[in-house]
Write a structure and sequence with these properties.
By secondary structure, the chain is α/β, with parallel strands linked by helices. It is built from 13 helices and 13 strands. The strands form three sheets. Strands 5-6-8-9-10-11-12-13 form an eight-stranded mixed beta barrel, surrounded by four helices. Strands 1-2 form a two-stranded antiparallel ribbon.
Length: 354
C-alpha cells in the first residue's frame, strides 16, 4: 500500500481526474519474462479539511475508502463518505480490537449440548466462541468470526477455542461425566494452514484430553475446492484419533463419491432443512437422504437448529442420531452446561416412542 498526498488542488473534481489518471497509468501493460502483465489498483481518497483535520484521521478514512474500492470490484477510485463508510469503519475497528482480544483474555467459549436420540441423554457439546467486549458487551460469533475469517486472525482464534474446549472437556470427564465429547469448528483458512495437524496434536497433549473425545467440525464447502489436499489432510487428522464431522451438509455442491472417500465419522444436517422439515417436502427429502447416505457409509447423523418438539420427533422417527438446538438449550457457560449432564434431554421422550 502507498500513500499519496496531492497538494495545491482547488476542488475535489480535479483530484478525481488526477487519481483516475493514476489508475490508467497502472493499467499499462508491463513486459515480464517475455509476456505483457497488466496490474490494477484500488484507490481510497479523502479530502482535507472536509474529512478531518488530523493526519491520523485522514489516513484512517482514506483506508476505509480503499476497502470500499476493493469491495466494489477493485480498479476504481472511492472517496470517503461518512454515511456509506460507517459499516466499513466499524468492521476495521473491530478487526483492530480483535487482535488484542485474545491476549487480553476477552474471548470466552460457550457450549451448546448435543443429545443422543436413542438414549435421550446428553453426550457432549459444541464449542462456540463469544467475545466479552469491554464496550460493546457480549458479542456472538456472527459479529466477529467473519472478520477473523477474512484475515489470519482466524488461525489464532481457532487455536484459542480449541485449547479452551479440550481443557473443558477433560475437566468434565474428571468430574465424572465420562464419555462427554466436545466439538470444535475448523475454518477453511485453518485447513490451509500447514500446521493444523501439529496444532491439534499439541493441544491434545497439552490438555490431556483423549483424542476420541474431540470432534472437529469442517464445513462441506471448505473441503470441496481441493479434493486431494482435503482428503490427505483429513486422513492425517483422523490418524490422531479424533472424530471428523462434515458440517452444514446439504448446502454445498459436493460430490457424494468424493465424500465417500473422506474419513468422516458424522454428517450434520444444515439447520435450513431442519427448520422446514415439518412443512416443506423437499426439506424433508433432503434430511432423509442425508440420513440414508450416512447409514450406507456407517456414519452418524447430527441435526442442528432443532427448535420444536415436532422437528425432533420427526428426526427421531427417521433415524437421526443426535440433535442440538434451542429446543434443548442455547449456548451457555461450561458450569451451567455441566448441570444438564445426566438429565433427560427431552422429558416428553421419557415415555416409550409410538
Amino acid at each position: 500500500e502507498f500513500v499519496i498526498l496531492l497538494a495545491g488542488l482547488d476542488n475535489v473534481e480535479r483530484s478525481s481526474v488526477r487519481l483516475s489518471a493514476m489508475l490508467a497509468a497502472v493499467r499499462q501493460p508491463m513486459p515480464l519474462a517475455g509476456k505483457d502483465v497488466v496490474l490494477t489498483a484500488s484507490i481510497g481518497a479523502c479530502v482535507y479539511p472536509l474529512d478531518g483535520g488530523e493526519a491520523e484521521l485522514l489516513l484512517r478514512r482514506a483506508n476505509t475508502a480503499m476497502h470500499r474500492a476493493k469491495a466494489s470490484g477493485k480498479d476504481n477510485v472511492q472517496f470517503y463518505a461518512s454515511t456509506r463508510d460507517a459499516p466499513v469503519a466499524e468492521r476495521m475497528e473491530l478487526e483492530s480490537e480483535l487482535r488484542q482480544a485474545i491476549p487480553a483474555g476477552e474471548l470466552t467459549v460457550h457450549y451448546q449440548p448435543k443429545l443422543d436420540v436413542a438414549r435421550n441423554r446428553y453426550v457432549g457439546a459444541e464449542a462456540l466462541a463469544r467475545w466479552q467486549h469491554p464496550k460493546r458487551g457480549l458479542l456472538p460469533p456472527g459479529r466477529f468470526v467473519p472478520i477473523a475469517e477474512d484475515s489470519a486472525l482466524i488461525v489464532a482464534l481457532g487455536e484459542h477455542v480449541l485449547r479452551r474446549a479440550c481443557l473443558q472437556a477433560r475437566l468434565w470427564q474428571e468430574a465424572g461425566h465420562t464419555g462427554m465429547t466436545v466439538a470444535v469448528n475448523v475454518a477453511a483458512r485453518q485447513l490451509r494452514d500447514e500446521r493444523i495437524v501439529e496444532t491439534v496434536g499439541q493441544v491434545l497433549r497439552d490438555t490431556g484430553l483423549a483424542p476420541a473425545a474431540l470432534e472437529l467440525e469442517i464445513t462441506e464447502s471448505s473441503i470441496m475446492h481441493d479434493l486431494s489436499h482435503a482428503s490427505a489432510l483429513l486422513h492425517k487428522l483422523k490418524r490422531l484419533g479424533v472424530t471428523i464431522s462434515i458440517d452444514d451438509f446439504g448446502t454445498g455442491y459436493s460430490s457424494l463419491s468424493a465424500l465417500r472417500n473422506f474419513p468422516a465419522d458424522k454428517l450434520k444436517i444444515d439447520r435450513s432443512f431442519v427448520h422446514e422439515i415439518e412443512t416443506v417436502p423437499s426439506a424433508t427429502a433432503v434430511a432423509l437422504a442425508v440420513i440414508s447416505f450416512a447409514r450406507t457409509l456407517g456414519m452418524r447423523v447430527n441435526a442442528e437448529g432443532v427448535e420444536t418438539l415436532g422437528q425432533a420427533t420427526c428426526l427421531r422417527k427417521h433415524g437421526c442420531d443426535e440433535l442440538q438446538g434451542f429446543l434443548l438449550a442455547r449456548p451457555m457457560p461450561p458450569d451451567a452446561l455441566q448441570a444438564l449432564f445426566g438429565q433427560p434431554g427431552l422429558p416428553a421422550w421419557e415415555q416409550p416412542a409410538d
